[in-house]
Amino acid sequence: MTFVEGPVTVTVPATSANLGPGYDSLGLALDLRDELTGEVVPGETLEVTVEGAGEGTVPLDESHLVVRSMRAAFEIIGKQPAGLRLHCHNRIPHARGLGSSSAAIIGGLVLARALVAGGELILDDDTLFQKAAEIEGHPDNVAPAFHGGFTIAGDDDGFFAVRTAVDPRVSVVVFVPATGVETKAARGLLPDTVPHSDAAADAGRTALLVAALSDAPEHLHRATRDFLHQEYRRPAMPESLALVDELRADGVAAIVSGAGPTVLAFSSGVESAETTKLIGRCPEGWACHALSVDMDGVRIL
């Protein structure tokens, strides 16, 4: 096997996991993309540049998450380049619950595979997904980043993911606070056990959410009621949960995106009157994005 000549570029969508009741299982790809360009270069140098989210704060050495993911892919393929150049154009906010780490992992793995002629013969899609979930620790964000659309994922004798339908009427508005919350800190607030009644109620809402996203979006408000994780995380993101409460009181299907603190509200089209009204409710100092559901997942340009 040989390395391909010239740079390769991949793009990876943002993702929102948990989706209310779908804790650690449901994920949705969103049309906000990071763009990664890599090239094998002569010598033994590593050049990493970053623009956009993370610029000036993320490491520019072997500890960079994209680089670590690329190295993991090269290791599986059995061809590790000495010299590597990587440029990251990041649009997905970091530490906001929109899957920036999953985008980096999926992007790095796919980019490395594409840089080796015939690399997909050794690192096939299933092997790549398993490695991505292993690096991330759970599959609910890497699944939609890789496959696109709406995915149901888990870990049962190996990581798995199933992509299912998304009603074309579904879009989202995300409200992104100026400061983030680390996933580890947010997960640390969750209890080891929950009441059986809460678990049963959450299971029912999760099943309803699959149906609502597939072809019954009129049920999204009821389907996004969570019993397992959001309320426990309120101390880490009180402003986010206050916005969720406010929106839900007005009938909007609003949730915390991933581990937070971004708030995601379901809408009926990026350019709809409903979306315009939601954008008007963005808190001062927050960023707001109206996004369609991304159906493509990771792409090689």
Condensed summary:
With 301 residues, this protein is an alpha+beta fold. The protein has helices at 65-77, 100-114, 125-136, 142-147, 183-187, 196-215, 220-223, 238-249, 273-279, and strands at residues 8-18, 22-40, 46-52, 84-90, 150-155, 159-164, 171-176, 254-256, 263-267, 287-292, 299-300.
| Number of helices, counting only DSSP H or I runs of 4 residues or more | 9
Average pLDDT for all residues: 95
Structural class, from helix and strand content? alpha+beta
Most strands sheet: 7 strands, mixed
- Tally of strands: 11
- Structural shape: globular
Give a description of the structure:
- The structure is a single chain.
- The protein has 301 residues and is α+β, with helices and mostly antiparallel strands.
- The protein has helices at 65-77, 100-114, 125-136, 142-147, 183-187, 196-215, 220-223, 238-249, 273-279, and strands at residues 8-18, 22-40, 46-52, 84-90, 150-155, 159-164, 171-176, 254-256, 263-267, 287-292, 299-300.
- The strands form two sheets. Strands 1, 2, 3, 4, 5, 6 and 11 form a seven-stranded mixed β-sheet that branches.
- β8 (254-256) and β9 form a beta hairpin.
- α1 (65-77) runs parallel beside α2 and α2 packs antiparallel against α3.
Task: Using brief descriptors, characterize the structure shown.
7-stranded mixed sheet, 9 helices, 301 residues, 4-stranded antiparallel sheet, alpha+beta, single chain
